[in-house]
Q: What sequence folds into this?
């Protein structure tokens, strides 16, 4: 059993408060889907409401911190050393289709380093959390990346470029390199949860390109604090700057990187 610090409690409370609204909206959305209405506006409203709740909670608890989020962009704070990085609803397309796999994700960056992370799935009530140097947890259970080392036993996660995003041809080359050598490749539609699941040992490896910092910031810390390795998809360290990611345990991540390089 591990106890959260005051900082993580602030982040967890904000995520849980926003989650209540998302769960309510998700219930309504499931009904809307049945009625064949177009619920895209409904989802963007849910997204904005979630972000507003998180913004208010975090600003009250830590006035002056900067705030970088999907909907409102960058808000400079008086405290230039701290920035919240927030995705109030990661997995929007899943949410839109009443698929119960989406998350709220919050990271705190201190002087350029991510030092605290929360990823919360409101439907399963799993709260993944980590603080730099203190390990990664889901609810009150310690997390470790999977111990698997054989690629033919590994299940990997990825994201597929969608309409108007990313490089389809490159992705197909990468998928061709990877899929014939592993036990399975999954595409569940939430980068934040893909990374949390790497930390939890459910997936063995994960790669994706064309991501934003709020998709990855919390998950990066979860993976490294669970004993895994994270780089960008080309093996470099500036993951948030590159907008791509390759994650896994210490055996599988380098092997996956090798295959991604071979796909060029």
A:
């Amino acid at each position: 059993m591990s106890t959260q610090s005051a900082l993580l409690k602030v982040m967890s409370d904000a995520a849980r408060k926003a989650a209540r609204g998302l769960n309510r909206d998700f219930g309504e959305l499931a009904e809307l889907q049945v009625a064949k209405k177009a619920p895209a506006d409904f989802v963007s409203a849910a997204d904005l409401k979630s972000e507003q709740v998180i913004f208010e909670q975090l600003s009250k608890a830590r006035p002056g911190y900067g705030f970088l989020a999907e909907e409102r962009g960058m808000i400079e704070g008086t405290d230039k050393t701290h920035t919240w990085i927030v995705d109030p609803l990661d997995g929007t397309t899943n949410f839109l289709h009443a698929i119960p796999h989406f998350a709220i994700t919050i990271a705190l960056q201190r002087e350029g380093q991510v030092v605290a992370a929360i990823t919360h799935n409101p439907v399963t009530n799993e709260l993944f959390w980590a603080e730099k140097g203190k390990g990664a947890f889901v609810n009150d259970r310690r997390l470790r990346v999977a111990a698997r080392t054989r690629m033919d036993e590994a299940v990997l996660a990825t994201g597929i470029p969608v309409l108007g995003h990313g490089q389809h041809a490159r992705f197909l080359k990468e998928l061709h390199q990877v899929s014939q050598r592993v036990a399975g490749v999954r595409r569940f539609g939430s980068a934040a949860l893909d990374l949390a699941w790497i930390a939890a040992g459910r997936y063995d490896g994960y790669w994706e390109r064309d991501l934003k910092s709020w998709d990855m910031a919390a998950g990066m810390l979860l993976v490294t604090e669970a004993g895994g390795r994270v780089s960008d998809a080309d093996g470099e360290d500036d993951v948030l700057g590159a907008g791509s990611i390759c994650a896994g345990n210490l055996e599988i991540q380098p092997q996956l990187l090798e295959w991604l390089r071979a796909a060029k």
